[in-house]
Amino acid sequence: MSTRDDQDEEKYQSTVLAVNDIDVDDEVQAYMQRVQSEAQSIRLYTEKVLTTSTTGKRKIGKHVETINLEGNTEDKRDGDWSKEMIRNFVELKSQIQALREHKGFSKSNLYRLNLNTHAVYKSPPPEMDFFILCLNRRKAFDALVLLTQLLNTTTTPEISQWIYKIFLKIDSTLEAKECSILRDLAKKARSISEELKLGEDHSNAENTSVTMFTCEMIISIVGIYYRQMDLL
Predict the structure, then answer these.
(1) For the domain 79-103+125-231, what is the CATH code?
(2) By the 8 A CB rule, do 211 and 158 touch?
(3) Whole-angstrom distance, CA of residue 8 vs CA of residue 11
(4) 160 and 34 in contact (C-beta within 8 Å)?
(5) pTM over 0.70
(6) What is the rounded distance in angstroms from the CA atom of residue 86 to the CA atom of residue 64?
(7) Torsions phi, psi for 74 (to 5 deg)
(8) What phi, psi does 109 have (nearest 5°)?
(9) For 112-149, how does the pLDDT look when each residue is reduced to its tens digit (9 = 90+)?
(10) What are phi and psi of 43, to 5 degrees?
């Protein structure tokens, strides 16, 4: 087990280059927030990493993917949507890791949050710098325990953003307890997804869209990236 994440608070305190140079945080934020604004038409958003032809530098680009939430959502986990979402997730993690190795996150304007209360998750998460510099591995998994409690059939975009950014923080090598926490989150997501598919009341299309996206995102990332394939 790598101890790199356990030492984040100490190891990366001297970093100086701002992450905004590649717009990682803005696009992670947009990735989830746009779910809310487009939920009426059941549009879900993914991110594509584009390479500019002039400089060769990678920037995060926007890509709209329209997904029909009706029918068997397991098809999306096994199909192109799931593969594309995981590919984009891994690309983004690679960029973040590259910045960490080159001390590319800024300590400026960082602040600490009390992640032990449900209230903090009602607001959008802070910038990615916070997750890299201020959130160690133990705190990240403690936060996932609370987020598992908050996950329900009317999940908010803010909850989705928090979960996604914590996934970006956590590497794929897990201890037994950490694996159990991720599995509990994915099992609850699967239960909620099945409940929504069987339910007859879909009057709130916005909440249904956000919740379905969040659940399928969780199941796919935990199942594929964190190698818990039996949950798919």
Answers:
(1) 1.20.58.1070
(2) no
(3) 5
(4) no
(5) no
(6) 15
(7) -65, -25
(8) 65, 15
(9) 788 999 999 999 988 888 888 888 999 999 999 999 99
(10) -110, 130
